[in-house]
Specification:
The complex is a heterodimer of chains A (285) and B (272).
Chain A: E1 26-35, E2 38-48, E3 53-57, H1 64-71, E4 79-84, E5 87-88, H2 94-101, E6 104-107, H3 119-130, H4 135-148, H5 164-175, E7 182-186, H6 194-211, E8 214-219, H7 222-228, E9 231-236, E10 239-244, H8 246-250, H9 255-262, H10 278-283
Parallel strand pairs in A: 3-8, 3-9, 6-7, 7-8
Antiparallel strand pairs in A: 1-2, 1-4, 4-5, 9-10
Chain B: H1 5-43, H2 51-63, H3 68-92, H4 99-137, H5 140-146, H6 151-189, H7 194-204, H8 207-233, H9 238-271
Helix pairs in contact in B: 1-6, 1-8, 2-6, 3-4, 3-6, 4-6, 4-7, 4-8, 4-9, 6-8, 8-9
Classes of the chains: A alpha/beta (285), B mainly alpha (272).
Chain lengths: 285, 272
């Protein structure tokens, strides 16, 4: 993606210490988190710059979603700090954090629509609560947001009446309701058929290209990851084991990365998670 | 020493005690936040918080209106039962004319508030816990939080206010229906004249009887909503967690209501 920039501006493509116009919009510094004594994230650092699409990938249970929740301030890390828009979120009060929350949107894995409200009300809620706009203007904006995800006619339906893929698209419409500067996507293509997954990928790319939105995508779908990413981070055992442009990742000779992108059953990433000896477990000592 | 049976027992006792106080602390937090949100809703009605009043109204319908028939049914029957039981005792004591007043006092001070609260625990408490629990599982609560929308203001406050107001109204209805039950039995089977029953009820009941009952109702309503919301919000582990929260909200709710009832009975007996 870095070669596509024809304007001659520095492209946010790698971690080289080249001078940048902008500070990182998201900075994760030595972040770690433990749950009940189990280390989920160990010591993790990454910078994400304004306007880029960063893909965080890794196997199930490697801590991708946890990292996302730490970045958006839903979990407090055990160690390290997270800066969003230059502010250290680990030191902010809930009220200060709420102000930052208006500047980003999140698409949850299941869409996380409010089931007691119609599709339209779901999209309208952030605008109703956080702006002083007239209801008639909000109605128009809801239609515009829903049109963007191709569901303008579905505003009056309840979430239970639409399919999983549609819920996700409505979730995206709701995430962009307040025109955020960053959008976080938690497994955007999980559980979608290939066509809808492709549509969602296209929406992600559109938002970042047309509106200059910074995107952070957590996924294990390698096809979509290579398609949309400006930069990729590969998580394994609570750490970033590889980072770089899609081309760098594709040509990486790190065995963990190779196994992950080829989906090979054999390699450094073990299929069997049990630590005890199988034979001993079956027949005793 | 550390793993002896005694210290193990004491440890688990201490752990449970700590858990109990943490539970109370959680409810206290929800109560404080909800009251604060309610006050800001009332005094800043013209602000951006447009959904609040509507949410309270919607919850009142859900919590209260739908349980009117069942409350009436239960209390009407209890009133009838009470008339029979009181007549049995009072006839032996030579004071059968005291049936109206005993039914009235028992209804207003005790059975009206208590039974209505218990019906509402099963009715509204369970559904609140299940609904909020399902929202936790579906990441809806997380979605609210990360959109800078406080789940307490959105979910807990409307349910708390609705439960308190509706339980108050339902208790008044329940009192009337319960007394009506006693009236029907007394007039039809215990040879009392309708006028006599009416006069005895109205003349002897004091305002204090009604007020003490309604004070309890306010506390019961708050308990039902707070316990149900707390159970819902701490759901983890999918559908099974939701089921557990639903059961616990009913069980804890009933226990909490009875204990609180005892406390108030003691308070009113000694103070008033």
């Amino acid at each position: 993606m870095s070669e596509q920039n024809s304007t001659g501006q520095p492209t946010p493509s790698d971690e080289q210490p080249t001078p940048r116009a902008a500070e990182p919009i998201i900075r994760v510094e030595n972040v770690g988190i433990d749950f009940e004594g189990r280390t989920v994230l160990d010591d993790l650092s990454m910078d994400i710059h304004p306007g880029e699409t960063a893909v965080i990938m890794g196997g199930s249970g490697c801590g991708k979603s946890t990292l996302l929740r730490i970045i958006v301030g839903a979990y407090r890390p055990t160690r390290g700090r997270v800066c969003l828009f230059g502010q250290d979120t680990t030191e902010l009060t809930e009220n200060e954090m709420d102000k930052l929350r208006l500047r980003f949107g999140i698409l949850f894995q299941s869409g996380a629509l409010y089931n007691s409200m119609t599709v339209g009300e779901n999209v309208a809620l952030p605008m109703h609560e956080h702006t002083d706009l007239e209801d008639s203007i909000i109605d128009i904006m809801v239609k515009m947001k829903l049109e963007l995800v191709g569901l303008r006619d579905f505003g009056d339906l309840m979430p239970a009446q639409i399919s999983g893929g549609m819920k996700k698209r409505v979730g995206l419409a709701r995430a962009i309701a307040l025109d955020p500067e960053i959008i976080f996507y938690d497994e955007p293509s999980a559980g979608l058929d290939p066509i809808v997954a492709g549509v969602v990928d296209m929406l992600i790319m559109d938002l970042s290209k047309k509106l200059g939105v910074t995107s952070v995508v957590v996924t294990h779908d390698m096809n979509s990851a290579f398609k949309i990413a400006d930069r990729m981070f590969m998580l394994y055992q609570g750490n970033v084991v590889a980072r770089g442009t899609p081309d760098e990742i594709r040509n990486s000779d790190d065995p963990v990365v190779r196994q992950f992108i080829t989906g090979a059953p054999d390699g450094p990433i073990p299929l069997r998670m049990s630590k005890t000896d199988f034979a001993k477990d079956l027949i005793g000592e | 020493m550390a793993d002896g049976p005694v210290s193990g027992f004491l440890g688990s006792l201490g752990g449970r005690g700590l858990g109990f106080f943490r539970y109370l602390g959680g409810m206290g937090y929800l109560l404080k936040e909800s009251v604060w949100d309610f006050l800001s809703l009332v005094f800043r009605a013209a602000g951006t918080r447009r959904g609040g009043g509507r949410a309270v109204a919607a919850q009142m319908v859900r919590v209260g209106v739908r349980s009117i028939p069942i409350v009436c049914l239960v209390l009407f029957f209890v009133g009838m039962i009470l008339a029979f039981q009181m007549a049995y005792v009072l006839r032996d004591l030579g004071a059968p004319q005291a049936v109206p007043i005993t039914v009235g006092v028992a209804m207003l001070r005790e059975l009206g508030p208590l039974l209505t609260a218990i019906v509402l625990t099963g009715f509204a408490g369970a559904s609140i816990a299940a609904e909020i629990g399902t929202m936790v599982v579906g990441e809806e609560i997380l979605a609210l939080e990360t959109s800078a929308l406080n789940p307490v203001r959105f979910l807990v406050m409307p349910r708390l206010i609705a439960a308190v107001i509706m339980l108050l109204c339902l208790t008044i209805v329940a009192n009337l229906v319960g007394i009506l039950g006693g009236f029907v039995i007394s007039v039809s089977l215990l040879d009392m004249s309708p006028n006599f029953y009416y006069a005895n009820t109205v003349d002897f009941l004091k305002m204090q009887d009604l007020i003490t009952g309604l004070v309890k109702s306010v506390a019961f309503g708050a308990l039902i909503a707070l316990i149900a919301c707390q159970e819902g919000l701490k759901v983890s582990g999918g559908a099974e967690g939701v089921g557990r929260a639903t059961t616990q909200s009913v069980v804890f709710g009933i226990v909490a209501i009875i204990i609180t009832d005892l406390f108030f009975s003691w308070l009113f007996y000694t103070v008033l």
